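Chapter summary example: a protein plus inosinic acid.
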Amino acid sequence: MPVTILIGAQWGDEGKGRIADWLARQTDGMARCAGGDNAGHTVMVGEREFKLHLVPSGVIHPNVQCFMGAGMVINPIRLVEELDMLAAQGVDVSPARVHISGRAHVITPGHMALDGASERALGGESIGTTRRGIGPAYMDKAARTGILTGAMRDPAGFAEQILAAVDGANWLLTERYGLDPIDPAGLADQYRAAAERLAPYIADTTHLIHTLLEAGQRLLCEGAQGTLLDIDHGHYPFVTSSSPTAGGALTGLGFGPRAVERVVGVAKAYCTRVGNGPFPTELEDATGEQMRRAGHEFGTTTGRPRRCGWLDGVALRYAARVNGLTEIVITKLDVLSGIDPLRIATSYTLDGDPLATLPPDTASAERAEPVYETIPGWQADISGARRLEDLPGQARHYIDRMQQIAGVPAMMISVGPERDQAIIL
Ligand code: IMP
């Protein structure tokens, strides 16, 4: 069973890129299965920092085959920029090792404009999307009016499809939202050029992945976003429009559950969220500010400050169940140094009644009050720790509690942004 699925166990930004980079050493292929350039994965290699939005982070490792699966929505212009950025840094991004499913969907300029228009129209009720066009692209996919990435094999025809899509979006922008239309001048040339560049990468990724698996090689599925942002299992509508949970890896890439050996959930030692929606353990005080500062909690994709709060153990347990986690990775433990005491939410109360599980709907999640367990903190800088024994007893206790709450063991604990700042268990 050669597949490992790497999942965000919170609201995204758990540090998956870094863990994917570490796991890439033990894999032959790496795949993105859902979402698009709303994701932002940062990988540090020595002094060099790679910010990846679409290409799997395994691309940094020369022997790893990279796949972008059918479940994704891909902005061709951004993908070309990302490939160029990687190539300029000496990374091999040839079509011999980077493969784009022909069944993924294309994000058009209309999708991006409509994402922004819809958010503006929602005003105070907005979702707080990344405005990358993700929701509108998945809307077209579900409505069966989308453009497949496979269309880029015919660059001229693809450019015509883009213009037709922009025309349709312009009707909505002007008639529904009262906004200016998108100026189509130059778009045909821009998208034709992108298609010419990307056409050699279009492949039957399902077949390629099965060939790899049948040869006994290993595949790592690099999840984007996080469990609590799942369109089915998060607090709708404050979610993304895809399935960032383990099930999404299966549908997004096209293999069955029997192929899966490990499901690794990545969780920060505290919680963050960008965008709006319920966040019961949020801290809007000096402690939250300390977490934001120490953890550099600003979005990779949008630069927005992230909302910060105590670890939500109920959400972590929920993520363990929904994904069938076999293990967890705890990230950013070092950020908690100097915060004493620490708190972990282990249940909620809802309208005065105890609630041990995730609130069933968004309105009750907004009202839920966390019930905290208080845990002694530690003062020492732990960023140099490389073994469990190097950590203060309080930090080890905190890790124990996270494992007990998740119900699965931790395989790694990160204590800093560099590749080697980790404790491998
Ligand atoms: P969308 O995916 O751009 O439609 O945004 C929907 C929600 O998911 C918003 O709350 C975003 O902030 C959030 N979101 C989307 N992608 C990410 C991510 O990679 N990390 C964290 N939050 C994300």
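Key point: The longest strand covers residues 260-268.
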